[in-house]
Fold these 2 entries.
Entry 1:
Amino acid sequence: RNGDRQNFNQENKSAVKQQKFNANNAAGIFYYNTKEVLIKLKLKEKVLKNQTSKLLKDYNSNIKKTFILNTEKLKDLEAAVNSTGTQARNNPELRRNIRKLIQETISPIRDTILSNEKELNNNLESILNENQFKKWLKYQKRKKEKLKPKRSQNNKKRRSNSNKRGKRIRQ
């Protein structure tokens, strides 16, 4: 039985695909679809729709400028991280270097994006009512969640199995 389990685990490990690093997502670079936002917030008044649209277009424009200024850095970072693959998994020093490179590259870009986001949110808060603004924050949070890498199914299973084993021992 143990031999079968070991063979199964070896096969699973080789079948698990390394998820590709996406520098744009890590930096938080994404654009809002103006029409979609207007529908989600259920805005009725034309003046409010126009103000909101303008704010979103300005935000998207600022993000595009940030993206253009940092395209080469992001491409280089992505290439570096994705080329290490399983080497980084087995080499703690390489993992530290990759994390440091990611931090040094992504942090200033993310700070710029967060600054633009804060300005957008302050402007939207000043024109939307409380309910609309809450809907906006929920929508924004969901958009940002989609950028985060998803855990592989195998990782989820391993984690839940180890949790189950831990619970049995404690009882």
Entry 2:
Amino acid sequence: HTQIVPDEQAEISAVLKKCADELHADLIVTTGGTGLSPRDVTPEATLAVLEREIRARLTVRAQTDAIKVFAKNLEGLVEGTSLIVNLPGSEKAARENLGAALPALEHALHMIAGEGHGK
């Protein structure tokens, strides 16, 4: 599922909830809205739908960048968990951050699904 959402906190939160609760997405990735301008509200919109927050620190091309990885346990769904990752809006930064996070994401998805340390 792909969707473009205006920089409005309530709209972003609603789409995140839809992806988690209705579409049962294991992984939800956002791009943009993570900077310092007043319109950059994606982290706040994500926090509004979370039950639990996980912060990871990853090294990207010899520079240490913070990447926020959020986990939400979906109440009332037996299998239901989603991992939400907020990436920067710059295509280059999004690719670098996601590339650095991929090894950790597979492990995180197994853990959230209750599968231990993967197969």
